[in-house]
Amino acid sequence: MTQALERSDYHRKQKRFAHENVTSPIKKGIGLASFMHGSGFTGSGEKILASVVGVEATSGGLVRILAASTEIGQGTNTIFSQIAADTLHLDYDSIEVAQPDTSQVPNSGPTVASRTCMIVGKLVESACISLKQTLISAGLLKENYSPTEFRKACSDYHQKFGPLKLFSKYQQPPQIGWDDVKYQGDAYGAYAWAVYIAEVSVDTRTCEVQVKDFVALQEVGKVIHPILAAGQIEGGVAQGIGYALYENVVWKDGRMANGQMTNYIMPTAADVPLIRVFFEEVPYAYGPAGAKGIGELPMDGPAPAILSAVENALGITGLNQIPLLPENLMLRHRSSR
Q1: Which of 126, 97, 119 is nearest to 49 (CA)?
Q2: What is the pLDDT of residues 32-71, one digit of tens each?
Q3: How far apart are CA 57 and CA 14, in angstroms?
Q4: DSSP string, 51-85
Q5: Most exposed of 83, 92, 121, 155 (fewest Cβ within 10 Å)?
Q6: 63-113 residue pLDDT tens
Q7: If 0-12 CB within 10 Å is exposed, 13-18 middle and 19+ buried, where does residue 33 land?
Q8: pTM (2 decimals)?
């Protein structure tokens, strides 16, 4: 929170806006939200799933990752390859992620719940450690080795023992537990934490709200891939801005009445400000290299931060419904005067 307040210049802007708002019809405000999101399935979900990941080394030293997680644009294949390459001290190009065909890969669970990196990525790391230790135990590889020596060890293993394929199965961290009968215990193994600060302007003549600046600071354990991580945060915040101000789902006769792009309003590039993304790193012992979940986190914070900023701009309280459409804000603003 200290870093987020400093990076957003929160206290100085709050004072400046209060002074400027006295004479201007366009009121400025700044607001924050602090929040967390659990990583992985809730309760005993991960224990029940008992996910499995495999790694296979070919005779030529190519390492194939066998996992059911699906690449849908979030960077799964990239981070799995990165985790494996870092664990095995190999080049990134030496890693291949197999297609998640159920006839080819074990069941490592669905691609949901901010679990791909923390849960499945940790299994990738564990399986790669087992692969390395297998070659070392067989006397084919020393502790400190080069990529060339790794490839030779894989070739020698295939000649002596046959295929080289190992699997890692999820083991629940020892310090957590969940009682499915009493519904008590640790809901998650780990949480991602964040403080988001939104700066807005509100035109009191039209009640149009614009987000002018956004600081998103989160602690997601070790950041595996900074560019992909920042991209997930930026995309989530953009969605959150739409959720807060524009995307109004209208139901009629059991159906969505505005299910077309002509009448369902979403933010465009013109409606999204510069999203300034920052990380604090507190490694989590049961994530790969200390990583935790990230994907769902940035959807939680934008709406409360934006509504808090609007309240600050107008000097009102009690805004608790989204999307905050201009017509709704106009009624609320007039009733408060």
Answers
A1: 119
A2: 999 999 999 999 999 999 999 999 999 999 999 999 999 9
A3: 58
A4: -EEEEEE-TTS-EEEE-----SSS-HHHHHHHHHH
A5: 92
A6: 999 999 999 989 999 999 999 999 999 999 999 999 999 899 999 999 999
A7: buried
A8: 0.93
